[in-house]
């Protein structure tokens, strides 16, 4: 390419806007909010990438996508090439382009967006989504030549961690089976994240790509109860198992009134609405009885989803209750912005103390107390303290708790996997668990986190799994991660035969 | 019907009464894994809801699992209409929940009321196999509704059948039967009670002054059954537990039954509406359907739901 070198002043200065549904219209439907780039917009935005030598974005990406590489391909109008580059490291571009917190990852460190430039970073997420959606529309799939190894790998949980691990192990030639307790694969991408942020049809399309790699999904299978992780290794012939069951077990606050009808965990509200389609009741059988006046406790991404789902289910007023201020809110800035646009009312520095009954089994009002911020606590966020005598109540008929989750107990109950003191599965840095041949990653190891972090964990576990199984890994062709010896033989030298004793 | 190669195929159906029916479906792996006290979640068709049902029996040789269902709402009535032998359920997941702890009691009373008669059977059998003396107390509204009397007789050292109207056995409720059992057998050291919340509460109140350990099986509204949604939360003593992963068996003396009953009806409005619509559509369709095959489970047109 003979194009002259781009500088920060020769690239298009303004970030290319992405069309969105009008807030007042979209707050009443489940169609996607952000409509995505067209080709011209994507190329204009691709032009904003400096192709800098430093590539901070690649380091900022939990799975290390070659971001300048795929952006260059977009600029060259070679969209399939862009897709090939992304799918070298990430099989789910349509998902990640939509739900990754890019402002804290690739876009947060983008050279174009550094403070001294006074420009906004390259819209990497939107470009990734553009490439992924193009691939789905055109029916592209990258099924590389896979040499079968004959090894069986079992994955527990068909969410983002399990899907990422499954993709890598399938590409390495393993026969991969993913077990899912729900009747559909996808995990939080299906039951949690609502369609207006990530349509379930996109998730299904990405799952079909995994199936094209040879991954098998077995739904309606509760591992631990139908069979145990130990049985998978000993009786079912799996050479290795990855556990990515998610966190589960939503938290409540323990305040009076939590068992009233109309009080939900965000997980229950979202699952009923998104996966079970209660929003289409009675065409779908799952009931929901959405509130007209909804209070959601918490200000993370799940809280934003619950707030915006409540609006779309027909609520007249939707309140966000958070005990710290907007600065500390864990949700992505974009989500809070979108929720505000749609009419969500924020009550910062407010904490609920009691849910008041309406006398007929439902909720009449929420009593809250004002908070103020004190010194920073262990998490570095300023600790909220109660303002004495500031209690007040406001009317609502539904209360949703979105204040995080505890560890899901099922695998702890049914296997000998060692847990940490909070009940999550204990792992080493390579995500190996206490049981030989078993890896774990995602929320069941770290507690609630993001989709891309779970996918990163799935891939990290796959890397370690491949080294343990003695499989070639394109990430470490020179044996860098396969250092050390096993039974006195250097790892890169050792054979591919798996011995099964007894 | 192309469903013969699908999983969860129904191999037996038995109608005990107008409202109570038995479904036995194929699932060899589940039949091997199931233990007394566990439950499954059934989703009868692709538009359906997920309903928890306690396992009534399992046959490891045949590779089947048995459920006994009461047609009380839209989903269970639609299943009563549509679930015939040879057809397949859309989804069944399980076994779920912590299996009942079958300890070493010398003498145990297994109480089943109404819908609870079936799920208490595996426990009665397990205690019987353990060598305990088992006294069965099973209750029905009248003699026409009685089922599984012979099955219970096979595993119980003594069986007390109760009917509300006295048309068979002891006239009265299962709590009266339990009272009688406790009077006759002071050596009873454990009671298992499964049935409607008000019945389990009655049993727990009977045994509380006697200090006899009483286990009950709770079946609140659930979605996933894996601890993820928290919809099935119940108050046990001063703690909140999830019936799906912390139960379904709990110490009856600790359970807050009022709370359980209140939470069971939290979707009453929508459930009533769904049932009404279903019954109306059945009446509308009845003449057209006479003589023709009943609609298939998995490919019902949307207008039919």
Describe the structure.
The complex is a heterodimer of chains A (502) and B (305). Chain A has 502 residues and is α/β, with parallel strands linked by helices. Chain A has 3 domains: 23-138, Alpha-helical ferredoxin (Fumarate Reductase Iron-sulfur Protein, Chain B, domain 2), CATH 1.10.1060.10; 152-248 and 406-472, FAD/NAD(P)-binding domain, CATH 3.50.50; 270-401, FAD/NAD(P)-binding domain, CATH 3.50.50.60. Chain A contains 18 helices and 16 strands. Chain A has helices at residues 23-26, 39-47, 56-60, 67-75, 79-89, 93-99, 106-109, 124-138, 160-171, 188-191, 200-212, 229-234, 266-275, 301-312, 333-341, 410-414, 443-446, 451-469, and strands at residues 152-156, 175-179, 216-218, 240-243, 263-265, 293-297, 317-321, 345-347, 350-357, 363-376, 382-386, 392-395, 398-401, 438-440, 485-486, 489-490. In chain A, strands 3-2-1-4-14 form a 5-stranded parallel β-sheet. The longest helix of chain A is centred in the C-terminal third of the chain and has 19 residues, at 451-469. Chain A is globular, with a radius of gyration of 24 Å. Chain B is of the alpha/beta class and 305 residues long. Chain B contains 9 helices and 16 strands. In chain B, the strands form 4 sheets. A 7-stranded mixed β-sheet of chain B has the order 11-10-9-8-12-13-16, with helices on both faces. Chain B has a 4-stranded antiparallel β-sheet with strand order 1-2-6-5. In chain B, a hairpin with a 7-residue loop joins strand 3 (39-43) and strand 4. Chain B is globular.
